[in-house]
Design goal:
Ferritin; 5 helices; elongated; binds fe (iii) ion
Length: 171
């Protein structure tokens, strides 16, 4: 479907995000399983639960508009997740299958932050559209999600700086 106006483009962008969140819900458990640092593992697990809520919020928006959330694939998120999986596979070869590794943790954080930044950008766009279109309740739902994505990004940043990266220097 070619978007003809801002509302069409809004649906188009929301479907991309719906696909992205679906892909993340699938990938986060694997990333959590690979994390050695207990706080990193916990933050992945917490964000998995938040991500399910985020998908739920998108579902609310789609059902109000009475359109299907499906029909698009976020190729960017597929690519970001493929990079994360490649990294996990390479790390397995380097460090052995289940040995705890701060380097693996640092790499997982790097991949996860790329994912959060994509989401912050894309949700920023749709929140702005919702504002322009006068969709106040959508704007509130999307803003709640943006706050969670930003919080996750900053938690990951703090973990990297204070614990994981320093531990990886001599790992
Ligand atoms: Fe999300
Ligand atoms: Fe996308
Ligand atoms: Fe996220």
């Amino acid at each position: 479907m070619t978007p003809k106006n801002l509302e069409d483009l809004y649906v188009h962008q929301l479907r991309d995000l719906y696909s992205a969140e679906t892909l993340i819900i699938d990938a986060l458990p694997r990333m959590a399983k690979k994390a050695s640092n207990p706080q990193l593992r916990k933050s992945f697990e917490m964000h998995l639960e938040e991500t399910k809520q985020q998908k739920e919020r998108l579902d609310q928006i789609f059902s109000r508009m009475d359109v299907s959330p499906k029909g698009q694939t976020c190729k960017a998120m597929k690519g970001l997740i493929a990079e994360a999986e490649d990294f996990i596979d390479e790390a397995k070869k380097l460090f052995g299958s289940d040995s705890p590794s701060a380097v693996l943790d640092a790499g997982l954080i790097a991949e996860a932050q790329r994912i959060e930044h994509y989401e912050i950008s894309a949700y920023g766009t749709v929140a702005t559209y919702a504002e322009t279109l006068g969709l106040h309740s959508d704007h509130q739902l999307l803003s709640a999600t943006i706050a969670e994505e930003k919080k996750t990004d900053s938690t990951l940043n703090d973990l990297a700086k204070t614990m994981v990266n320093p531990a990886a220097v001599t790992a």
